[in-house]
């Protein structure tokens, strides 16, 4: 490894560090996951020369750190029993201690006692849904175990369509076990369609109504850029640069510690935290998992941001068929999956396989190995020259091809590119792609085990509307299954951090007191780099999984006590202004004119930060973090008698904040 000055260093870190990017290495498809940290397994399927497995290795998934970070920070040095506070935090977290033992029992902690076969014998006898194609992707393979049976027991199995989302919300009846309020559609909508509700989101939904707010979110171009987005567009200087510009300025940028692939990740983080175009950013994140190209891959340093800008963001609220065709013409994808090395005389199957297995119809869903081979032959000729797409007719295989239901004489090399595009459009509009897309969207927005009725309805819209994503989303939002799925999604680690920042309304500008020794990057860019490193520690930084399947989207993939407690400690960093490159409000100012008693003050805080009122047991546990004798009637000042930061962190440890 080469020594490099830390481009994010400022007076908070004040240190250089050895570069861990691993850009020159290759781990399976990934090109090296920036060293050997928790950034994905980097494994390749065994049948393609790797160590396998392709979809799920429980020892290799991004499960965060295995240790338990100390939750006993200096804010309570006077407390006589640090262990008591740790126990209280775990209790507040809804049984987080159970997560140490794995995901199956932990299902009961987030989804209710009736959601686990061990406590509900009927759930053990409930068969898995075996109708329809046998999808074998990472989300569904993870949910085929005991935990999946339990969550399925707690998930609606059927539903109805209505004319508008608001009508569906009114008709929905939440029957699942959950700690969340069962009849608060505004909170539910804000939690599912954003990276975390804040005061503005809740206010906007109440003002515009459910239908009006959704309509506006469906048209992101009509929503003004926020201050944070404007700063990201200006200060992340490489994001909007063309390949030619980046190539011409690369040496100068390298000397300043500025790298386009790094800035691409930071750009995504900024958008998730600061944008008011929240549904759009949710869809960008979804497609960066669904049509995944690793953020850091040898050879893509100057092109990965363009893939995000010109493929994912361009079509995230458009037609998937256009996104898929554009992706197969982009150098970042072609390099990532070795298409540029595939010729008529030496065929590489990587991209052809993933086009079927991950990006369209889904694994083992209507194709076989002969289809993969035929697709790889057809796709020859697509390549990259000087980091730009090029079609090379002299390298294109000529001859009849048949892939699933697509066939073509493919009679001449000059026409090969047009045949390839026709094949891509066939795949993107295939009914099996419709169902696979619907399954993945419903898993992201509704439930880890989405109801078949909902998936069927969304898939039908996908076919009818020729892959139009807003139409599919509107079908989802206009069905009762969406509104009855309260409490059925748990935030992944990155979503937890983002939701915490949004709940605290952390600002993109640095305080006047902030000073930096780094003149090459703005305070905001440095702060985003700090957040990026924390997300890497969680194993969930945007786009950074090295393998092409993208991050898992179900709860059991992320059940790590170490990660959970690490999240709580990071929330404390945000609460107390530890990332000093951002504007933050002192916790004692979160509530204007706070109530004078502990119980009422806690209620005001939970209503503002997580949009709920807690049950008495959790209220008592939080109050006892401040003092073992504190009750709801105890008089308190604005600092909660010195315990305000710990109280706010405890609020963020509740299942109510972990749940979407």
UniProtKB/TrEMBL annotation:
Top-rank taxon, per record: Bacteria
UniProt xrefs under InterPro entries: DUF1800
Biased composition (Acidic residues): 69-80
Keywords: Membrane, Transmembrane, Transmembrane helix
Region of interest (Disordered), ranges: 1-80
Taxon lineage: Bacteria, Bacillati, Actinomycetota, Actinomycetes, Micromonosporales
Membrane-spanning parts: 87-107
Protein name: DUF1800 domain-containing protein
Gly residues composition-biased segments: 25-40
Naturally occurring in which organism (per UniProt): Dactylosporangium matsuzakiense
């Amino acid at each position: 490894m080469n020594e490099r000055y830390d481009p994010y260093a400022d007076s908070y870190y004040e240190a250089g560090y050895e570069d861990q990017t691993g850009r020159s290495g290759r781990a399976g498809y990934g090109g090296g996951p920036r060293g050997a940290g928790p950034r994905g397994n980097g494994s390749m399927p065994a049948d393609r020369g790797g160590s396998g497995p392709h979809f799920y290795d429980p020892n290799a998934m991004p499960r965060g750190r295995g240790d338990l970070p100390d939750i006993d920070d200096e804010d309570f040095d006077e407390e006589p029993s640090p262990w008591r506070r740790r126990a209280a935090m775990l209790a507040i977290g809804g049984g987080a201690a159970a997560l140490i033992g794995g995901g199956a029992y932990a299902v009961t902690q987030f989804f209710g006692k009736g959601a686990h076969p061990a406590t509900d014998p009927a759930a053990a006898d409930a068969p898995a849904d075996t109708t329809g194609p046998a999808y074998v992707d990472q989300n569904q393979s993870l949910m085929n175990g005991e935990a999946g049976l339990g969550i399925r027991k707690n998930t609606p199995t059927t539903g109805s369509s209505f004319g508008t989302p608001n009508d569906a919300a009114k008709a929905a009846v939440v029957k699942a076990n959950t700690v969340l309020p069962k009849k608060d559609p505004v909170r539910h909508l804000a939690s599912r369609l954003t990276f975390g509700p804040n005061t503005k989101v809740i206010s906007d939904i109440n003002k515009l109504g459910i239908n009006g707010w959704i309509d506006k979110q469906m048209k992101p171009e009509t929503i003004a850029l926020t201050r944070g987005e404007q700063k990201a567009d200006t200060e992340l200087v490489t994001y909007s640069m063309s390949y030619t510009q980046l190539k011409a300025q690369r040496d100068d940028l390298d000397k300043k510690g500025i790298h386009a692939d790094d800035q691409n990740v930071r750009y995504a983080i900024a958008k998730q935290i600061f944008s008011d175009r929240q549904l759009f950013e949710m869809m960008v994140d979804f497609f960066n998992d669904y049509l995944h190209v690793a953020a850091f891959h040898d050879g893509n340093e100057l092109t990965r941001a363009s893939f995000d800008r010109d493929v994912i963001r361009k079509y995230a609220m458009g037609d998937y068929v256009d996104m898929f065709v554009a992706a197969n013409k982009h150098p970042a994808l072609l390099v990532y999956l070795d298409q540029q090395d595939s010729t008529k005389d030496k065929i590489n199957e990587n991209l052809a396989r993933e086009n079927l297995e991950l990006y369209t119809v889904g694994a083992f869903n209507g194709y076989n190995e002969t289809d993969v081979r035929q697709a790889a032959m057809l796709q020859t000729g697509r390549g990259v020259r000087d980091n730009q797409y090029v079609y090379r007719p002299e390298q294109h295989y000529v001859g009849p091809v048949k892939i699933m239901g697509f066939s073509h004489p493919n009679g001449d090399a000059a026409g090969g590119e047009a045949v390839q595009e026709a094949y891509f459009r066939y795949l993107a509009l295939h009914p099996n792609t419709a169902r696979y897309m619907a399954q993945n969207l419903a898993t992201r927005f509704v439930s880890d085990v989405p109801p078949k009725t909902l998936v069927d309805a969304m898939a039908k819209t996908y076919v009818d509307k020729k892959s139009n994503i807003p139409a599919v989303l509107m079908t989802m939002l206009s069905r009762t299954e969406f509104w009855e799925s309260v409490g059925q999604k748990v935030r992944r680690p990155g979503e937890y951090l983002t939701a915490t920042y949004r709940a605290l309304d952390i600002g993109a500008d640095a305080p006047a007191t902030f000073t930096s020794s780094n003149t090459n990057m703005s305070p905001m860019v440095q702060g985003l780099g700090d957040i990026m490193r924390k997300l890497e520690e969680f194993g969930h930084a945007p786009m950074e999984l090295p393998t092409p399947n993208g991050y898992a989207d179900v709860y059991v993939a992320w059940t790590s006590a170490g990660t959970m407690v690490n999240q709580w400690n990071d929330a404390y960093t945000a609460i107390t202004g530890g990332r000093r490159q951002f504007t933050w409000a002192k916790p004692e100012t979160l509530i204007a004119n706070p109530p004078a008693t502990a119980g009422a003050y806690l209620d005001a805080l939970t209503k503002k930060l997580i949009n709920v009122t807690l049950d008495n047991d959790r209220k008592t546990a939080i109050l006892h973090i401040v003092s073992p004798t504190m009750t709801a009637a105890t008089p308190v000042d604005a600092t909660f008698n010195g315990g305000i930061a710990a109280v706010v962190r405890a609020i963020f440890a509740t299942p109510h904040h972990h749940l979407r």
